[in-house]
Specification:
Shape: globular
Strand order of the largest sheet: 1-4-7-10-13-18-21-23-24
Radius of gyration: 20 Å
Helix content: 10-25%
Structural class: alpha/beta
Order of helices and strands: HHHEEEEEEEEEEEEEEEEEEEEEEHEEH
Number of strands: 24
Distance between the termini: 28 Å
Number of domains: 2
Strand content: 25-35%
Largest sheet: 9 strands, mixed
Length: 273
Amino acid sequence: MSRILGSLEARLSQPRLSIWRTIYFNFRTLPFKQALKLPIYIYGKVRFFMLNGSIIIDSTRISSGMIKIGINGDSFSLFDHSGYLQLADTNSRIVFKGRCRIALNTKIRVVQGVLTFGNNSRIGSDVRIICNGGDIFIGENTGITFSCVVMNSNFHYTYDVNRKGYRNMSSNIFIGNSCWIGNQTTILGSAKLPDYSIVGSGSFVNKDMINYATQSYPMIAGRPAQIKTYGIKRVFSPKTEIKVRSLFQKRQYTEFVPSEEFVDNLDEIAIEL
């Protein structure tokens, strides 16, 4: 009985698919033939504001619901089921390279820029992504957890007194493939993260970490962020996570499970989306 009630409670906390918002958003932003397939599902009370730009789905296969916006993907947010999406002008674009899941309460604003989501990318709840006058690229299989900020502009031009010239208010952000961004991390313009980066919770990233990385699989943390160590990979495969979790739950191991082989099928991420 407890499991049944728990399952019911979980369903009640999930925002419902908004049919009318879904239909409107697809036909407002996509070419007609793509919109007919309803590839983008809108959940809950996601608000639209100035949808003057466009959505591009750059994928060989387009299917219904391959992109979900406003879903309760991580259960780390109050369930007001809201969200916000703005494409301010005709030069504003969001590009989806495949499947994508964007959780509830996430605010996305694109103004004269291109925001790209790689295949199987996941955005947690309460995230704010502001793409203003530049580009933001989020690689495939990359996860950005709850309450993060990704922002490539400070919204104001400044004057450099010493160099005697104006500074641009916007720059590009690049987040590589298979990265994992810890909660409450801030990523600002000019930030670049190499593939397989893990960024610790509460970090502040505002520089090109690719130039600093001397080895693979960097662990990045701090305010400002620095590379702390190398050789740490996030386990993405749900099947691998279940296998490892069972070993710790059985108390066979407490802090470390020795394993010569690392099996992590990234294709299995799609199961969660």
